[in-house]
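User: Modeling request: complex.
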Amino acid sequence: MLLKLQKKTLIKSQIIGYAFTLFVGISILLLISQLYFDLKPLLNQESDVFKNQSAIISKRISLLKTLNKDKIYFTEEEILDLKNQDFIEDVSKFKNADFKVQAFTSDSGGFPMFRTDLFFESIPDKYLDVDSEEWKWEESEDFIPIIIPENYLNLYNFGFAESQGLPVLSKNTISNVEFNLQISNRFKSKNYKSKIVGFSNKINSILVPDAFLTWANKEFGNSSKKERTSRVFIEFNKPSDEGVLKFFNENNYTIGKDKLEFSKLLFFFKTALFFVFAVAIIIIILSIAFIFLSLNLIIQKNKEMILNLFSIGYDYKQIAKFYQLTISLTTTISLFLAAVTTFFIRGLYLDKISSLLDFDKQGNILFSFMFIILVILLLIYNWMILKKIRRVCEKGR
Amino acid sequence: MQIELKNVKPKYMSEAEVKASDIYLQLRVVFEKGKKYLIKANSGHGKTSILNFIYGNNLNFEGEIKYDTSFEGKKVFDYRKRNISYVFQDFKLFPELTLFENIQLKNKLTNFKTEKEIEELIKRVQLLEKKDQLVKNFSLGQRQRIAIIRALCQSFDFLLLDEPFSHLDSENIEILTKIIDEELENRNASLIMTSLGEVSFFKYNCVLNL
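Assistant: Request completed. Predicted assembly structure:
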């Protein structure tokens, strides 16, 4: 009887409108969250030994500078100026080897014999994303790990090996090849074992651990020579800042622009996700506000009926129950449909992505996330409705 | 159960207005179980108000009302379900429901009468053929009869009647007084009734001027 009476008070179009907007909002929210969750490992995947959002800058070499080499070095003021830019998190200098380096293989290796001059540079270890176990050096050790540009390997594989009839090497094979290093100055020399522990796309240099270079420069270097910096390594906090490229152009610094691309893309992708996420939140908030308004309207319109029910002995919990059930049921159906819909959409994009990219499937968070939202919404609704009906009953006395 | 009033006065009436009252601003007025009370007054003297105060539907009064020992929100509510029934002057019926549904709306809450007993009562007040018609099409007199039957569909120690026969002819009044008398006797319950003047529908134990 109570049901029949209260059923007539509902405004069906408003309930359906609420259910639909909630469905849309929750679907987008779930989809975006799941998409982010699914793609996160892909976004964080680093093919490079360098952490993201970092780059190397040097001064542009012009005709004038080839004559006066001093111009290619950064002065202390210039480095300080870089540090002061608000899109730059940190600046570190490259350290150069101030001694002669030669690499060579011994006959036992089964690897083509070679002997070549090399140069070393180093940057603080914290910028490198290699295994810290491998990337260390102590004075007592005669093994020096090195990192070479990936280009060197390509140059060898597709150029040198091809033309000289030598075998091509994978990253893995070359990482297993041990060779010798000889470092020397005019007075003394020392031999070390070495292996390539990593490859880099970002940096065109041969890197050794900072600790080794510091030690070796002291031991083998020309101590009277002033330390000079021709390249600096910078870490961005906002690589997409419009000022970045402008700043580098104005100062005649060169920066590998494509090196910023991935960071930029990532930033745009994240911004787009965030934007859609915000839109979804707004839609959900609007739908909730809408149903509150609708409920308020229903309660105000039927105030007399509610008061009469209260007068003949129904308590406010009994009166509220119908509205609580209606809203709870509508919300549950809406959210469940949203979860099912996004589940299917996820299936579609997973198919697409896994056919394009090599990627690990992540867990499905749709239903658990939906359930959490549902519990929160139901708690809010039930509490609000009870409070509203109670207020009407008590105000009527 | 008994109902006790101490120094009660509507907040919206002055002391001068209630000077002659047997109830308002009286030190102690007690309604006991098993007795019939008539509260009479002219229009505008707060007859409906006093019943609403007692029922806990209107709290706009000074002084103190007690059911047995207390008069608190939840308790009033429990009493409303078991100990006090009220025939409102404005009936408080639901026009969108049928006659029978209106009565069942209350009876479902209390499960006090069987469907058959209800039908018997409807028949006695000559409305059986209208049992399944919507109340919004009923006359005031018909509505009054339904409101009275509905009020009987619960246990009670006190039955509050607010000018219950104002829209009824003498034949119907006779039928209803008989029904009410029977129900009161069955429950050994009290009656508190308001009316415009001295009326002799029941044998009152006490007549009070408001």
